[in-house]
Design brief:
Blueprint (H helix, E strand, L loop, with lengths): L5 H9 L3 E5 L10 E3 L2 E3 L2 E4 L8 H9 L1 E6 L2 E9 L3 H15 L6 H4 L2 H4 L3 E5 L2
Antiparallel strand pairs: 1-2, 1-5, 3-4, 4-7, 5-6, 6-7
Protein name: DUF2255 family protein
Pfam families: DUF2255
Length: 125
Amino acid sequence: MNTWNTQALRKVAGAEELHIAPRRDDGSLREPTTIWVVADGDNLYVRSWRGTSGAWWNTARISRAGHIRAGGIDADVTFTPVDDPAVNDRVDAAYQTKYGRYTGYVEPMISEQARATTLRLHPQT
């Protein structure tokens, strides 16, 4: 898998919001959905606030490809599901650190329902 260059990683990770547009079966992009993004080390992660019922997440889960825009970066990406509990624990901590001031919103992002939707973002070349 491809890795993020340092500048792009910093910009996307530092953005308050990310616009995500997974690819549909026909190759077209869904309308972008605004979500939160966090970093752990050299990796970027997203989750569905609605858990597995999130429409954007279901499209991403099936297609494994899409486009993101955040922090001045526009990038085609691939999505890799994350089921490693240790990684999910670190992603929980990243959500709490970055978005903890949004009480009532960060709690659903670290729930078991949301953890089940954790995706790692990989830049496409």
